[in-house]
């Protein structure tokens, strides 16, 4: 049955080229009983005008305008505060969700709850990312190939890339594919507004350390379009990653992974900035302190990362 009210939350910031597509994909959901909350985070383009036009004849949709830019975490917290639905499904302003997305995720949570005694469930949708050069990257959801990922396994994966055998981590824990009960978001205290990036990872880490379960839908139900923006810079990403690690430093120290977790993002940053001397020094520091995990990490992720970057840029200059 799809008679329970579900909130679709869309954060918007300078998305005039994509926000209408995102909202239309919300309007077309096959789950009938929905409300659509769009939070504009002080856009300075034509986003607000476009949102107002596309929702003017749909009484299920409402635009909320921030007067101060709060970032993605703040915009999502506004959605959590204003939501009337029993579930919240987050859409990004530059993504497109297929009509089945809400029903797939809500039913997935309901089914899991029927068979397991827990309410702390996060459900992620499987999707695909399109690049301008025609490259497509599959984004299978975490937990979509097993019975879900439980407890601190997700925290260990996100904070210092520890992977367990027979656990499917998929494409991680992006909020753009997330659905959970509204009470779950409130129980976790929403998103950390001090983080301008990786607030989705922080939410997942906190849920994981509280014993939460991460499940995913098997069917492809959203399309992500690769974009570049000022708020997605390498510098802002590293800054937020460092805040995230320091926030959880007590736990990381308890499992002897604080130094590793703090410095691995720097290694990734030096690679992106092509500062290979700094890369080498950081790498040597990691090798000295955590030789086995560092070598394992670099050999598992390094070749895949380089292949992914090659496919992203292939044919761009032709």
Could you explain how this protein is built, in words?
The chain is an alpha/beta fold. The longest helix has 23 residues. The protein contains 12 helices and 10 strands. The model has no long low-confidence stretch (mean pLDDT 91). It has 2 domains: 220 residues, Alpha-Beta Complex (Spore Coat Polysaccharide Biosynthesis Protein SpsA, Chain A), CATH 3.90.550; 58 residues, no CATH class.
Radius of gyration: 20 Å
CATH-level-2 architecture of the largest domain:
Alpha-Beta Complex
Give the percentage of residues in beta strands.
Answer: 15-25%
Q: Strand-and-helix sequence, N→C?
A: EHEHEHEEHEEEHEHHEHHHHH
Judged by helices, strands and strand pairing, the structural class is alpha/beta
Could you state the CATH homologous superfamily of the largest domain? Answer: Spore Coat Polysaccharide Biosynthesis Protein SpsA, Chain A
Which term fits the overall shape?
Answer: globular
State the distance separating the first and last CA atoms: 51 Å
Overall pLDDT score: 91
Q: Quickly name the level 1 CATH class of the largest domain.
A: Alpha Beta
Q: Count every helix, treating DSSP H or I runs of 4 or more residues as helices.
A: 12
Runs in which pLDDT lies below 50 for 5 or more consecutive residues are none
The CATH topology label of the largest domain is Spore Coat Polysaccharide Biosynthesis Protein SpsA, Chain A
Described by strand count, sense and barrel closure, the largest sheet is:
10 strands, mixed
Q: Total strand count, please? A: 10
Compute the number of structural domains.
Answer: 2
> Helical residue percent?
40-55%
């Amino acid at each position: 049955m799809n008679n329970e009210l579900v909130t679709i939350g869309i954060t918007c910031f300078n998305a005039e080229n994509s926000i209408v597509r995102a909202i239309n994909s919300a309007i077309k959901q096959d789950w009938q009983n929905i409300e659509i909350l769009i939070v504009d985070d002080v856009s300075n383009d034509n986003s607000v005008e476009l949102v107002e036009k596309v929702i003017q004849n749909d009484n299920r949709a409402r635009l909320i305008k921030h007067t101060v830019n709060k970032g993605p975490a703040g915009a999502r917290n506004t959605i959590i505060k204003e939501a009337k639905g029993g579930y919240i499904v987050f859409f990004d302003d530059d993504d497109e969700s297929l009509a089945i997305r809400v029903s797939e995720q809500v039913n997935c949570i309901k089914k899991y709850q029927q068979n397991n005694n827990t309410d702390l469930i996060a459900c992620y949708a499987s999707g695909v990312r399109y690049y301008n050069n025609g490259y497509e990257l599959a984004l299978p959801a975490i937990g979509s190939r097993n019975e879900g990922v439980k407890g601190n396994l997700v925290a260990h994966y996100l904070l210092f890339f520890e992977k367990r055998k027979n656990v499917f981590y998929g494409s991680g824990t992006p909020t753009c594919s997330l659905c959970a009960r509204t009470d779950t978001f409130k129980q976790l205290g929403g998103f950390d507004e001090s983080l301008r990036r990786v607030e989705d990872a922080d939410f997942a880490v906190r849920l994981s350390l509280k014993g939460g379960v991460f499940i995913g839908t098997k069917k492809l139900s959203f399309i992500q379009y690769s974009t570049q923006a000022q708020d997605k810079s390498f510098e802002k990403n590293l800054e937020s990653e460092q805040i995230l690690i320091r926030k959880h430093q007590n736990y990381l120290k308890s499992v002897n992974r604080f130094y590793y977790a703090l410095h691995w993002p720097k290694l990734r940053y030096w690679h992106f900035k092509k500062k290979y001397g700094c890369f080498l020094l950081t790498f040597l520091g990691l090798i000295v302190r955590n030789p086995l995990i560092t070598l394992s990490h670099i050999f598992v992720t390094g070749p895949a990362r380089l292949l992914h970057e090659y496919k992203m840029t292939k044919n761009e200059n032709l």
